[in-house]
Design brief:
Layout: H1 3-6, E1 7-13, H2 17-28, E2 36-41, H3 48-57, E3 60-63, H4 70-78, E4 85-88, E5 104-107, E6 113-117, E7 123-125, H5 127-136, E8 146-148, H6 149-154, E9 160-161, E10 164-165, H7 167-177, E11 180-182
Parallel strand pairs: 1-2, 1-4, 2-3
Antiparallel strand pairs: 4-8, 5-6, 7-11, 9-10
Helix pairs in contact: 2-3, 5-7
């Protein structure tokens, strides 16, 4: 199957077209195969810069109300794709060239690397073993996660943790009931 039939990259954004541009550049200009890309814009005002980016890159675009909480916005993002898998790529994250997933590098505002995380093994685990493994490899969180959307919906989506998406809580639920694969 083609990547566009399997995976959608969904990019939530809010009032940060400068970050969004860097994110989009890492997807469209640095990858040989680009899956479906949807930008979900929860900005508080219309940003002409986003429309300029849309013309340049040709991504699908959803304009939200500007009033969604982070959790509601992330849940809305993962309820849009029609593909079985999705990468929720935050607007302030970028992809390495030709590497869709496989770790995270932390880079400060000056562009200096401040550490990295690469999964230790290539394995799938489920149940107690999955929860334990995810607990031991706690840095496995967005943007280093590709979500199985059917499992995401069955697990009840992202819970809210004081206004933020509790991605780690959701990942533990999924690891227990559906399994987690480290690549």
């Amino acid at each position: 199957a083609m990547i566009s039939e399997l995976l959608t990259i969904v990019i939530p954004t809010r009032n940060r077209p400068d970050f969004l541009e860097l994110c989009l550049r890492s997807v469209f200009d640095c990858q040989e195969a680009v899956p479906n890309v949807i930008v979900s814009d929860n900005s508080t005002s219309d940003l002409g810069a986003v429309q300029t980016l849309r013309k340049r890159y040709g991504f699908s675009y959803i304009r939200q109300s500007g009033k969604l909480s982070m959790t509601d916005h992330h849940n809305a993002c993962l309820n849009v794709p029609q593909t079985p898998w999705a990468l929720l790529l935050h607007d302030d994250d970028e992809l390495y060239p030709n590497v869709l997933i496989g770790g995270t590098e932390y880079i400060d505002a000056q562009g200096v690397s401040d550490g990295a995380w690469i999964p230790e093994t290539n394995t799938t685990v489920k149940g107690e073993e999955g929860v334990l493994r995810l607990g031991l490899d706690f840095q496995a969180y967005p943007p280093s996660c590709i979500w199985n959307l059917e499992a995401f919906r069955q697990a009840g989506e992202f819970p809210d943790a004081n206004g933020a998406s509790a991605d780690y809580t959701l990942a533990l639920r999924l690891a227990y009931s559906h399994g987690v694969t480290f690549l």
